[in-house]
Amino acid sequence: MMNELFLTAYILVWPVISAAILLVLIVALIRDLRNASKSDSEMI
Amino acid sequence: MPLRSLNQDDRTYMQEQTAFYQLSGTTALLLLAGFYGLTFLMSLMIGKKKENVDSYMVSNNAVGFGLSAASMIATWIWAASFYASATSGYQYGLSGPIHYGFWGALMILFIYPYGRRFRALAPKAHTLAEVMHARHGTSSQLIMAISNLLGSCISLMVNFTAAGALVSVLSPLSFIQGVLIAGLGVLSYTLWSGFRASVMTDFAQLVAMILAAIVIIPLIFFNAGGTGMLVTNWGNLSAEQSDFFSTKAILEQGAPYFVAVLAYAIGNQTIAQRLFAVREDLIKSTFLTATIGYGAVVIGLGMLGMLALFVGLTPANGDMNNIIPQMASTYLPPFGIALFFILVVGSLSSTADSDLSALSSIMMTDIYGKNMARGTPDPKRMLWWGRATMIVATMIGVIFASLRLDILVMLVFVGALWGAIVFPVIVSFYWDKVTNKAFTTSVICAVALFAVARFELLPLQGVIAVLFELSASVGAGVVLGLMAFAFFNRKVAIFVAIATVIIAIPNAVGFLRDYPVLLSSLTSYGISAVVCVAMSWNNKERFDFSLLAERVTSFQKSTDNGKETSTDVDGDVAPARA
After folding, report:
1. Which residues touch A41 (CB under 8 Å, ≥6 apart)?
2. One domain for residues B244 and B385
3. pLDDT at residue number A42
4. What is the model's pTM?
5. Residues of chain B found within 8 Å of residue A5, distances taken between Cβ atoms
6. CATH number at residue B381
7. Domain count, chain B
8. What is the mean pLDDT of residues B307-335?
9. Is residue B559 domain-resident?
10. Would you list the DSSP string of B300-338?
11. Which pLDDT tens digit goes with each residue over B402-447?
12. Min Cα–Cα distance to chain A from B118, Å
């Protein structure tokens, strides 16, 4: 039973990590957008 | 179907019809039009009537963390990443996806310390080849530039081919229509603003890709039977496939890929370009995040290959690239198929636009700026070169993809070339004795011996095989030594390298000859390192690294009052030509 759970977690952990990274990137982008508009500068 | 005996084409057609769910032509067209329409509109938001030539190649050298990391991930993931990772999962079982995705991810991590060094020495660089020109001269520069021109053209072709294959498999549209739509779509949003458009659209494309992956992976897992299915079908895995530490998986997939991908990470302009674009203090966090992001997405999609193995799926026509589309067709509702469609289009488009930006930068900087303009590059003409390059490269990619030319063997040579340059490039930025002659000779020797081993031009037996195995052992030491040098000091790196060689020799001799892919790649690293060190050792001249920042500068100094000025190759400001 333990092995099956580990295997299931092994398969499903990757979308979870992907979601966490996506969240980090979106938060960072929003922060950069705010900073750029405050300083009236271009992001790229 | 008329009453006649079925030929092979009929059987193939029928197999494809039953194996794949097909979106309607209208749905496929709407998805493609929506995807490329939105990315084009995004590129219009940042378009300028007069693009700055440096921004066209590396933005403002101060791109933030979110955009940079997203762009790194999106660029490093290409269409083949999913298919290859899934193939690895299907062939090697539990450890398969790790042996593709983990090593690919790890290389992003290992190159960032070197990236920081390159950036610190030449903060205003546009291409790594340009820095090599400043360090060594034309031959070293052209080795890097030409390998990248070839590599990016091949990458374009592969991505357009993937678009054609996807469209033809999952919709009634033809292969050629898919290739053309992808080619025109990518070109449309990249042409005007170059790298800036690439980075901006990469973010949106990555969001779409990750959202698709987040939905698709669990959906397929649970629709295929979830944990219960894993228990029931455990018997479908062989002993090797059910072993997480499978030697076969390491030797046939993990190790060759690990060695190859280090070369790609160092040699590839698409990565170097992002390195020179990100704000300097954000290099570490960007590369670290890209490492985790790339690994999670690619390993996650590789799990679909492993699940295919569990459920006993047979790839249609024996083509491993059909594994993911078949899994999607079997276990996803139509909405999920549409998400999968966007996932693949996003991955291939983000890499293709990066390739177009890389190609244009190399043509602008290394071919026109450093060689044809003879000291006074004209920013306007430079931009013209960049845009013309994108158009020509897209045409080449579309034509080669449409003709389905088998030019992937060239990718082997590009990989060999990049493998051969890893040590000379890195050591050139730390050791002031390395000469242009040592760089060029070491690369040529390494590629020549790579070809001998890879294509078995000489029989890999007896003394010849032993010589190659010894060279490969040195190569293993070089790879691990370079990795150690990325994070520790020179003494630790040399210790790791020597220890690796000592451990490798008794294990490699008499063994590695049976694995020509790994043998040739490691030989390339070993020979280039030995020749480069041997030729540089007694050099009395020392290079002053501070010269790099003086020699590598912006091309466009100002646009005040409409008068553009450019910088010549010696670092002095010169008036631009009309």
Report:
1. none
2. yes
3. 87
4. 0.92
5. 227
6. 1.20.1730.10
7. 2
8. 94
9. no
10. HHHHHHHHHHHHT---GGG-GGGHHHHHHHHHS-HHHHH
11. 987 766 566 677 888 888 999 999 999 999 999 999 999 999 999 9
12. 21
